[in-house]
Automatic annotation (TrEMBL):
Protein name per the record: VOC family protein
InterPro entries membership: Glyas_Bleomycin-R_OHBP_Dase, Glyoxalase_6, VOC_core
Stretches assigned to the VOC domain: 6-119
Source organism phylogeny: Bacteria, Bacillati, Actinomycetota, Actinomycetes, Kineosporiales
Organism: Kineococcus glutinatus
Pfam family, one: Glyoxalase_6
Spans through the membrane: none
SUPFAM superfamilies the record matches: Glyoxalase/Bleomycin resistance protein/Dihydroxybiphenyl dioxygenase (SSF54593)
Signal peptide annotation: none
PROSITE patterns xrefs: VOC
PANTHER family for this protein: GLYOXALASE/BLEOMYCIN RESISTANCE PROTEIN/DIOXYGENASE (PTHR36437), GLYOXALASE_BLEOMYCIN RESISTANCE PROTEIN_DIOXYGENASE (PTHR36437:SF2)
Length: 127
C-alpha cells in the first residue's frame, strides 16, 4: 500500500511573487488557482496550466511555507507513523489547523522537502 495517493502541487521559490505571477500567468499562460494570505506575510499563490490537476505554488522563503513537492495521502497520522517506523524523521508532528487539512513535512535522503497533505475530498484549502 502506498503512503501517497497523488502529487497535488509543486512549489518553487521566488523572490517576488507578483513578478513570478506575471511570468507564469501572462507569458506561460497558466491560470491562477489560489491567491490567499495564509497568515500575515505568508501568501499562497498557486498557478497551473489550464486543465492540469497539479498546481505550481510560487512561494517566498520568507513566508515560512514549505517549499517542495506536495503529495496527497489518505491518512496523515498513519503516514507519519509509517514513515517514522521506516526510519524517516518527519520535521514535526502532524499539523492540524482551521485553514488546511492535516499535514506534515519530511526530508528525502537528499534534503528535499516532501509535504504530505491528507486528502479531504476537496474541502478546505489545498496546499
Amino acid at each position: 500500500m502506498s503512503i501517497v495517493t497523488r502529487v497535488t502541487s509543486v512549489s518553487v521559490e521566488v523572490t517576488d511573487q507578483d513578478e513570478a505571477l506575471a511570468f507564469y500567468r501572462d507569458v506561460l499562460g497558466c491560470e491562477v488557482r489560489a491567491d490567499v494570505e495564509v497568515w500575515p506575510g505568508a501568501r499562497w499563490l498557486e498557478v497551473a496550466p489550464p486543465g492540469c490537476p497539479i498546481g505550481i505554488a510560487l512561494l517566498t522563503k520568507a513566508s515560512g511555507l514549505p517549499i517542495g513537492v506536495r503529495y496527497g495521502t489518505g491518512d496523515a497520522e498513519g503516514a507519519h507513523r509509517a514513515l517514522t517506523a521506516a526510519g524517516a524523521a518527519p520535521h514535526q508532528d502532524v499539523l492540524h489547523t482551521d485553514y488546511a487539512p492535516p499535514m506534515f513535512t519530511v526530508g528525502d535522503p537528499h534534503g528535499n522537502t516532501v509535504v504530505l497533505i491528507e486528502e479531504d475530498g476537496g474541502a478546505g484549502v489545498r496546499g
